[in-house]
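hey so i finally got around to running the thing on that chain from the lab meeting. sorry it took forever, my laptop kept dying and i had to restart like 3 times. anyway pasting the input first so we r on the same page abt which one it is
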Amino acid sequence: MTSKVTAVLMIMLVVCVSLCYVGGRARLSAVKKETELVVDECREWELRLQDLRDQIDEAQTEEYIERIAREKLGLVKPGETLYIVSEPDSSGFRPVVRREGVASEIGD
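ok and heres what got predicted. didnt touch it at all, straight out
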């Protein structure tokens, strides 16, 4: 009788260990997948951060500041003449606005 009980206990022990092992492997696999997703997301954020740093560096250059002053604000350097050509109106007239640069606009 003792050998039968021992055999049953051993079988139960093997089944329990097997179930724990399979469950642990499944959990490990899920954690690995989640880790890969987080690492990928972290890489994407690092790329976005580097892009923003590059934009900040560019925005601090004289060329960028001058380009924005010209494009967005319509400023000109002293001695330059800015011509703004508008779309024609219904009669076909196309107005042209001329603006001379003055010293107080874009620097030297």
